[in-house]
């Protein structure tokens, strides 16, 4: 912190009745507000089988995608879709089928102060998914965790200083500011193919889920090159005895370049979000050979920011004449922006109380529900409930079994987020293994993704007014400091200079004053 105290009696011998207010139009990114809410998205689709065939839902997954965000006066409109993947049996209880369906949604988020042209990033995370079959139709429902933040790059008028006033005392500070100067968004289609092991005896490929991680971003003239990897998890049907489902995992590298519109800056950040996944497997020329083809639609975004240090007025008063009344406005300045991607391994044990015994665990779907966040020693602690759906085979039937439960979880991530509420958690690498006939161990990797910002909280002086000073007691005074008071606060209270306080109280050093400190001061008539 750089704090200066100036007495213009010494700097300017010419007296002035009115102080000259120095103003500056400050260009910086400001954080205006946030909203955390749940959104319920529902959909319905016809089942392909007959109306009289019994349908059993085994599991349901969902991926939430934002298609468009529009900032209006006083609100943010969010349009998107939820892509559902459902595993079920119909008619033949031993044959697993899959169905993919999408449900569009529109949400209006009330945001006081919002205006067209502002930036409102939104993070989405499915916390609960349901699927039910009735009358030949499949009803779908997802509960989303929706977190919205509002930013403005509009310049604001602030008071940077004063001059030409007798007995003027002012405190200034060098503050860091940042603003977004360029950005770009682009959808890209990433393709890949690989051979599937014949040991898995795959007969058909049902669906896939994916998570994208940015590993490096490089900037050039009006463009950004983003490289990273897509972690793909594919669900297949298998002809292996007692294992009708198998999961394969694949890592797909990507490197894409997108255009940036704006000026050159000094910091570049980027993100990649999976919007859709399509997979297909086909038999090869040789017996048992099978090729997997995958297409992943990515939404890539990048932005450049520019930092600047500015010297601004924090407070002011005079030792004579009228009182000065600085008017301040709360301002949360964005100091830095970054995309955070990190992951930790987790494990939980399911007790199949009252369920058919587990012979062969097949797969599990996990959905974290966040209930508490805390930060300690550079780590983010996340607590919540893990919604679990386990698929497994039992001893006495070829019909797959489904077990749903919720288990508590606690995870510590090696990151220090300024705004942890904006994070999204996504489980990948889920592995299930039987411990005993009534215990199944589930291992997983929990990915944390967050567009994080560091904020400065100092209020900025927006205007300055004057009012007549009341009659004041003169002479030698004794004062005991109050909790939280600084030397500046005491000097301003009694309209004396900080230097005069230090001369009469040699034990006072710097601006900090201990609580209950005796302070002697002299106020002239």
Number of helices: 3
Amount of helix: under 10%
Largest sheet: 5 strands, antiparallel
Shape: elongated
Say how many strands there are: 26
Order of helices and strands: EHEEEEEEEEEEEEEEEEEEEEEEEEHHE
Q: Roughly how many Å apart are the termini?
A: 35 Å
Mean pLDDT value = 90
Proportion of strand residues? over 45%
Low-confidence runs of at least 5 consecutive residues:
1-16
Structural class: mainly beta
Rounded Rg: 31 Å
Characterization of the model:
This protein is mostly beta strands and 525 residues long. Helices cover 4% and strands 71% of the residues. The protein has helices at 8-11, 487-494, 498-504; strands at 4-7, 20-26, 30-46, 55-72, 75-90, 92-110, 122-134, 137-152, 156-163, 168-196, 202-220, 223-240, 243-259, 261-262, 267-283, 290-318, 323-329, 333-351, 360-376, 379-393, 401-413, 424-436, 439-456, 460-467, 475-480, 518-523. The strands form 9 sheets. Strands 1, 10, 14, 15 and 16 form a 5-stranded antiparallel sheet that branches. It is elongated and about 100 Å long.
Sum this structure up briefly.
This protein is mostly beta strands and 525 residues long. It has helices spanning 8-11, 487-494, 498-504, and strands spanning 4-7, 20-26, 30-46, 55-72, 75-90, 92-110, 122-134, 137-152, 156-163, 168-196, 202-220, 223-240, 243-259, 261-262, 267-283, 290-318, 323-329, 333-351, 360-376, 379-393, 401-413, 424-436, 439-456, 460-467, 475-480, 518-523.
